[in-house]
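LOG
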Amino acid sequence: MKIAVGLSGGVDSSVAAFLLKQQGHDVIALFMQNWHDTTGTLFGDCPWKDDRAIAEMVAKKLDIPFHFVDLSEEYGKRVVDYMFGEYKMGRTPNPDVLCNREIKFEAFLNHALALGADFVATGHYCRKESFTNPDGKEMFRLLEGADPNKDQSYFLCQLSQHQLSKALFPIGHLLKPQVRDIAAKAKLPSANKKDSQGICFVGKIDLPVFLQQKLEPKEGPVVEIFRDFYDNNELFRLQEDPGGFSDSDLESLSKPYDYSVSSGKVIGKHNGAHYYTIGQRKGLNIGGHATPIFVLATDTINNIIYVGEGQDHPGLYRKALFMNTDEIHWIRPDLALAPGQKRGVRARIRYRQPLQEAELVRREDGYYLLFEQAQRGITPGQFAAWYSDEELIGSGVIH
């Protein structure tokens, strides 16, 4: 088989290419550049030049052809514009999920297929299996990676059956130390390279500076919400009710607390509510508290940030979330729920979060995830992903 490896210059994709070459496949390296602008990057430069140099050295070491493709126009339209749009609406996007759906397994995949590749391989820590359904059609399962500390299936929660059919994950069965060991023994130039951080293909950024390219600063109040706000709050009572919930409680449980300036005390100023996200601690620059303060909610219409003191502040926790039907994606469309149906699942609302026991409920107005334990920092715009055992079967955008 002819396989195009998305060679990023990192150790994971390098070992993926090495293993495929060892298995006797016709392997080509394909490096993509997706970002040029250095505005807001913490190191004053995009990392792609260094990454490309290392990727070329790896390809030379493995004696495989090296190709370069500039997908920055597609990345700008499909990922960066999406980021700005979400922040402007007061939602917190996940560009890495979009990058995989729109770039790596769409624009990049199409380029690889045009080069004659049968499959695209990446260095993701996840696994794929296939089976034949009752109609005789081959279906694909996306499974967690074998390394519980590196499982990256969440980032692929928006892939389709077609995209999975063309995808290979050669290191998904390995632990990270094993990957490092393989790279060292093979003397790959990327063996000791640190893992990348920050936004996919952009790197670590100063978010307000980055967003100021399109979202202007606008001064507004920071309002602290104290714990006595919840004393007679019906939603808080419902969240804490040990007697359990009925289906009629779902809508209330999924809604965030309703704050106003009169709900607390103005303790400072910020330079734009759209620069902040729920659960954020850094960047507030407000002192006078015994423990750190966290963002509880943002109001981009009125340009207000609501904060609370302490990691266990009740405003940070919620039992349920809601997702619009048109923002639901089933990796396994054969497992989709009809209105009125529900299913026990394991779910997460962010990368690296341990999977949580939950119930997925389909209603006429959309989907609800009801968790056994209250979840910290449920954030509109992020993706909730749900699993059946070790298989990721669907995801949706948190409303």
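LOG (cont.) second protein
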Amino acid sequence: MHAPVDPKILRKRLPGFGEFVALVALTMGVTAYGVDNALPAFPALARAFGVSDQNQLQLLVYVYMTGFGVAQLVYGPISDVVGRRPALLVGLGIYAAGALMAMLSGELHTLLVARAIQGAGAGAGRVLAVAIVRDRYAGREMARVMSLTMIIFIMVPVLAPAIGGLILLVADWHAIFGSMLVLAVGIGTWFAMRMPETLRPEYRMPASVGRVLGGIRTTVTCRPALGYGTAVGCMFGSIMGYVGSSQQIFAGEVYGLGAYFPIVFGSVAALMGLAALINSRLVRRLGMHRISHLSMLAFVGVGVALCALALAYDGRPPLVAFVALLGLGQLASGLAMPNFNALAMEPLGAVAGTASSFIGSYTTLVGAFFGAVVGQSFNGTVYPLTLGYLGLGIMTVIVVLVTERGRLFRPTHKEPARS
């Protein structure tokens, strides 16, 4: 565990607690904003680029997440060498460059490249914000900071589509990507002015490809790390399938909500925030295994209910019932995924930085792949999404059963002591 930051630096330069939490949360939030803010612009983009197959626009989500996933492999190890501050500022610069390129795009292929660049830049915020918190805080204080950070962070996907919709009321699709550019520049400026380097010089690592590869080898040969990382990827795939096809389902072909789409999307996303609150209150009493395994099984149950509902109404179920079940699915995944991630990281304290980067990259890429499979299957009904939820939920159960050698709810390896 890292020692505290030099007290002289703390007194002179580090922002106060509230400002620190807000800055870290918004740095992480750049990722979600880059995905969800663009969703209301899909119809405008289809008209601008002459896209007849709306499924092609889903690629704007999936190439972004692919860039995001790959880049996470890089930022963690690099920041251990050069420090958090320069690595994060470079990442925000890459994100801003991608946003500017997206604004100036004249064809869909150029826009897709721009989105991949944006995603690669966003990877810095996800990896390094957590590292900065770890540098400054430990133990219960770190848990407190991360809980408060996640509450703010979760509000981003709730509000981002609404912000995108408001932008489109007064401007065209170019302004959507312009808002991402402004956000990146604003956060980068705030960070540069207020946040000093948090990694102490004595904790910097020498540049070593062998060290990184050794950490990755340790991670992939660790049964809980690979198993629970795969489980996170499967559940994340269902979320990405939902995000990619949500605009077509709610605003377009199935329900035709148009401008009301952000309200429905935000309502479903808000339940992830509720899940974070519930988990923070229950995990110390019930443990990660019980909560995550029960939530995983509940997710499969939701998948069964979604498929039954879709079949009963020929792929176009009543809006309220469908949204209610989707919300329950988000609640279940929001309880399972953070605990799965913690269980994946639990045995890897000796290589935590590299392991975090690898697991983050791996789960994102797995999720983006499965999400693309689900999203690209959209056919004017909710069948692909409901089958995706059920299929990926069953895959998650199988992976966890293999990881835990057929034993659920109780750990086959010791959990950390709860203080």
